Amino acid sequence: MKKRLVTLVLLLLSVFTFAQTREIKGLVQDSSALSVISATVKLTSSKDTLISITDIEGKFSFRSVKSPEFSLTITNLGFMPYTKVYSFSAATPAINLPVIIMAANPNQLSEVVISGVAPVTVKEDTLQFNAAAYPVSEGSAVEEVLKKLPGIVVDKDGNVEAEGKKVARIRINGKDFFGGDVQTATQNLPADIIKNIQIIDDYGDEANLTGVKTGDPEKIINITILPGKNKGSYGNAGLAGGNIERYSGNFNLTNFLEERRFAVQALANNLNRNGFNFDGGGRGGGARGANFGGGLTNGNGFTNSLSAGIDYQNIYGKKINYGGSYSYAGTSNNALSNSFTQSFNSNDTTLNKRDNNSTSKNLNQRFTGNFEYRVNKGNYIKISPYFSYNNSENTSAGVSRLSRSKYYTFNNNTSANNSLAPNYGTDLIYSYKFKKRGRNLTLNTSLNFSGREQNRDSYNIYDRIDSNKTPVSITNTIQDQFNGSDNQNMRTNIKAAYNEPIGKTSFLEFSYAWNKSDSRSVRDVVDTNPVTGEEVYNSLQSNDFKYQFTTNRIGLSFRGRKPKYNYTVGVVAQPSLLTGQNIGKNVHTTKENFNIIPTVRFAYNFSKTHSLTLNYNGSSFEPGFQQLQPLRDSSNLNNIIVGNPELNAEVTHRLSFNYRKSDSNTQAGKLFVANISFDQVYDKIVSSLYNAKTGTARTTTYQNTDGFFGVNGNISYTHPFARRKYTVTVASVGNYNNSASFTDDFRNEGNNWTIMPRASFRMDIKDIVDVNLAADYRLRKSKIVFENRTNQSESKTLNLSMGGRNFFFKKYTLGYDFTKQLNYGYQSISNNPNLLNVYFERRLLKQNMGTLRLQGYDLFNQNVGISRVVNANNITDSQSNRLARYFLVSFNLQVRKFTKGSKMPPSE
Known about the structure:
Layout: H1 2-19, E1 22-29, E2 40-44, E3 49-53, E4 59-65, E5 69-75, E6 82-87, E7 94-96, E8 100-101, E9 120-122, E10 126-130, H2 142-146, E11 152-154, E12 160-162, E13 165-166, E14 169-172, E15 175-176, H3 182-186, E16 194-202, H4 205-210, E17 218-225, E18 231-242, E19 247-257, E20 260-269, E21 302-316, E22 320-344, E23 349-374, E24 379-404, E25 407-433, E26 440-466, E27 473-501, E28 506-528, E29 535-537, E30 543-561, E31 565-582, E32 587-607, E33 610-621, H5 625-628, E34 632-633, E35 639-642, E36 650-662, E37 671-682, E38 684-691, E39 698-705, E40 708-721, E41 726-743, E42 746-765, E43 769-785, E44 790-808, E45 812-824, E46 834-844, E47 850-857, E48 864-871, E49 874-881, E50 886-898
Parallel strand pairs: 1-7, 1-8, 14-17, 35-39, 38-41
Antiparallel strand pairs: 1-4, 2-3, 2-5, 5-6, 9-10, 10-16, 11-12, 12-13, 14-15, 16-17, 18-19, 18-50, 19-20, 20-21, 21-22, 22-23, 22-49, 23-24, 24-25, 25-26, 26-27, 27-28, 28-29, 28-30, 30-31, 31-32, 32-33, 33-36, 34-35, 36-37, 37-40, 38-39, 40-41, 41-42, 42-43, 43-44, 44-45, 45-46, 46-47, 47-50, ...
């Protein structure tokens, strides 16, 4: 009995002792709230001696800690040792320590810029770059950081491309900045306020709420502001003047007060630097004094621009987030261009040489708003209204020379047109989360109206020569025509999605979407007799046409989520109805289709630096006004256009693959990215050309056909050396498409492919030199196969470039940007321009707030625009004038003022 009692007491003591152990968790950061990884954490007490290492997020943990009182000692290279004694209640089973901040040791490795977080982190649909790993000189803009990021390309206009795709929008702390204008943020926000930059595949608000990702994502950038920099103001004001009456003036100011953001900017110049881009990722403020601004832009002609905008974001209480932006931009442009077009058919080739002189004026206004209301844990509402308005005027004068066999047509053309294009609507999303985890209902609706009212006066003189006849036949035709049109479109979309959990990690989604596009086009054509001046209404070319495209999209999908991977497998049934009515001409058309589209998504996260994503989805696209309207548009007698009301909608199936891998080494930052997509298009809407039996004229109509597919790929590998002082990047972009068109009732098979390998070497020694050497080679090949002949063409472009900055005596900077372009295979184009831009600047005033700069653009005076477009059985090579050599003196004043005591964000 005594032995049993002793055994029982010992058992109870052991259970009691075990119950008193606890788990200790903590997070280690530096003074900039960046994670400190690979730090040694030692826990000691009268009962414990334990050691742990912080992970990639700066986290550590100890299990089975016996004593409620213990001491922590944390050490890491580049930091002062951290020691602190902690004491907790003996009954506490788990302890989450407050964030531990380590102070930098200025005597250890001062050149180590980052200490605790990997330069690149892969998060399935997000690439996150630690801005501190890519230091730039004082006063630099965000754009300078982007240029150093692996896999990111910033062109001379400031457009940003990530993984081979153009970045469409930009956000600051998760909120659109000036409606998403990319350059507005990248060229005006200072780099020293950034914590990290995220490149995100964004599937939309609904996907962010439900986790169900379908369709093609949009590339966006999200910039996270450093804690301590979210209370204060920063901005720039600059003036510049130069020879040949060049000028520029800019002002921008951004103020943060925790969650409140207010920004204003204005820009005026005649340097071909536009204001806001109203396609959503557009031209920002530019002309920033501390930013080289990319040198010459790629805009054709000469452009004067005036723009201004205001952006505001705020919160009300803890549940409401609201804000919006307004942008205004006015531009005037004058451009000279020439082009050479080859149009191939089964018997011969039509050649068209054209010279054109155009002037244009554009006035754009845009408002975007957002209102978010988190009613409670289960209810969420977001409303996003928008409005834009475009008023444009254009005049042009051109001469074209067409030749085919022994037929020639000389066309002198002058035209003037103006248009008004309003576009407004709203998106609304409502989400309700049930008490059962994973069960939710999402309602999404959008309403959009877009219109274009256009008036066009054109005057054409056609001189036709037929050298088959003896004597040579010459005829003359004069066409004086007014064309007034009013196009309107109303789009309505309603979608409901319901998610039901069927296990701990799997869900079913039921969805239904109704979409309707209701369009109307009214066109009035009046011909003027060139001899008598009499105006005659042209009833054959005038029209009042309506059409409706309606789809019902019914979807069922199964979704699973595991720690390492997640997947979605589903199917969509989509009946569609396209109806058209030609009012007054008694023409009606009805087309019905039914498509089954599978959807598949698979994402595997090997680690925080390694991911793989596979997507398969489909979409439909309805024909446009001009393609459907059953009338002859003879405003260009060389190319008469006739619509086809019997067209079906296109259906596209897309398979895409994305692979990303970086390393976790805090001093490296290697990144490998590969993505490829395959598109198959059914009922593709293509042109059908009919050449006149004699002469150079042709008629274009449209029809559906199959046989369209395309492959697009992008691969990039970046390898830094010596703590990112030197970086080598090799990459390649390629695409191939197989197409078809019709000429004189014969089907023409065609294929085009482009490959562009590129390589770059960057040397980046802070406050000494920042230079990038690059080479890219673009090879384009096209092949058009007719029944009795095959045509092949090839063009090549080699670009060699060097751009960078050298820093002297802490106050001086020499910047340069040189490009040598070699072009081969273009018709009527032989230019191989050398483009050199140079600037020299001196920083002035307290804290280097002022900058005085002397800059020269296109010193060799060779800037010119060259392009090639391949479409169906046409190849067009174009050349246009651009703003060339000029010199500029500028002064820029920076504003930097931050308030101490900014609230630190919660640890991740």
